[in-house]
Amino acid sequence: MKKWIFPFMLLSVLIISACSNSSSTEKENDTKKEEAPKTFTYESETGPVEVPTDPQRVVMLSGFTGNVIELDVNLVGVDVWSKTNPTFEKELKDVAEVSEDNLEKIIELNPDLIIALSTVKNVDKLKEIAPTVTYTWGKLDYLAQHVEIGKLLGKEKEAEDWVDDFQTRAAEAGEEIRAKIGEDATVSVIEAFDKNLYVYGDNWARGTEILYQAMKLKMPDKVKEMTSKDGYYTLSTEVLSEYAGDYVILSKYAAADVSFQETETYKNIPAVKNGHVYEMEGDGASFSDPVTLEKHLAFFKKSFLGE
After folding, report:
1. CB hemisphere CA count around 185 (13 angstroms)
2. Are strands 277-281 and 247-252 parallel, antiparallel or unpaired?
3. Which of 306, 284, 305, 157 is nearest to 295 (CA)?
4. Under 8 Å between Cβ of 215 and 177
5. Within 13 Å, how many C-alpha atoms sit on residue 102's CB side?
6. Which end of the chain is more exposed for a tag (fewer CB within 10 A), N or C?
7. What is the signed CA dihedral for 104, 109, 115, 121, rounded to 10 degrees?
8. DSSP assigned state of 95
9. In 3D, which of 294, 297, 304, 299 has the Cα closest to residue 252?
């Protein structure tokens, strides 16, 4: 056999082998795709629910819309509170507004998964339209809720990664803020809604979880006392100064009566006189999903640190 023949034969064997291996791998991948389950059993708080492994058309009847947006899962219908939330305006531009009272509209959207609050009406009829999972608002904390929704949507790892990263960034910002304003400085979160004023505890959205839990900023004792039972407390302008900390986050709804800001009582509050009142957009602030939390974290860093 001539010397050049052997290398040629060896090369041919390698090429054939490579093609064979490639073909085998493709077949194996195709088989895996074919074998991938289309549904799985999700253990919801009301019992097991058979849900799609990779949902493509999700309807939201809850306040968890931002969780689904952050996990990049397609939405086809959301409740009015989500649809009118300015925080989600861009993401929900082409998403329909739906209601638990208008089942025909939901049927038209042909959802493959419905996520709702435990208080939703017509839940049995919703289950006839698509697998329906309900959550009790506040049963899980704001971060655990995101991981739970990640489990439902087959994106638990992505949800955990976001939580870990967010906690780190919020804690770092908290350290910087405490270093700047002082470890003992207090912060109040007050909201003007309609004709009423409210002050909030440490887990009532409006960024309260970030300020008090993640950043470990201090709450005035009076606020802690009066919000310990319900999480919030209704105020009058006359007593507003008793609840104002050294710094005030003032959440203002667009349609709120803010005439209290013209009173001498308000103007003489130390935080007001010192320029330590940071006004936040109230519309949409009552959510505590990742999209809203990122917005609030950026607002606090800009307000306290000028970043």
Report:
1. 19
2. parallel
3. 284
4. yes
5. 13
6. N
7. -10
8. P
9. 299
Q: What is the dihedral of CA 230, 232, 238, 241, to 10 degrees?
A: 120
Instruction: Evaluate if residue 7 carries a pLDDT over 80.
Output: no
At residue 64, the 3 state secondary structure works out as coil
pTM of the model: 0.86
Write down the residue that tokens 């004792």 correspond to.
221
**Burial letters for 212-222: b for 16+ Cβ neighbours within 10 Å, e otherwise?**
bbbbebbbbeb
CB count in 10 Å sphere of residue 167: 13
Cα 53 to Cα 68, 113, 115, 127, 293: the distances in Å are: 15, 10, 15, 17, 27
- How sure is the predictor about 3, in pLDDT bands with cuts at 50, 70 and 90? very low
DSSP 8-state class, residue 37: -
Residue 101, token pair as written in the block: 């009272």
Residue 184 has pLDDT above 50, yes or no: yes
Burial class (CB in 10 A: 0-12, 13-18, 19+), 293: buried
Q: In this predicted model, what pLDDT tens digit does every residue of 211-235 receive, in sequence order?
A: 999 999 999 999 999 999 999 999 9
Residue with tokens 């310990």: 228
**Phi and psi torsions of 258, nearest 5°:** -115, 25
Q: Which two tokens stand for residue 234?
A: 């209704």
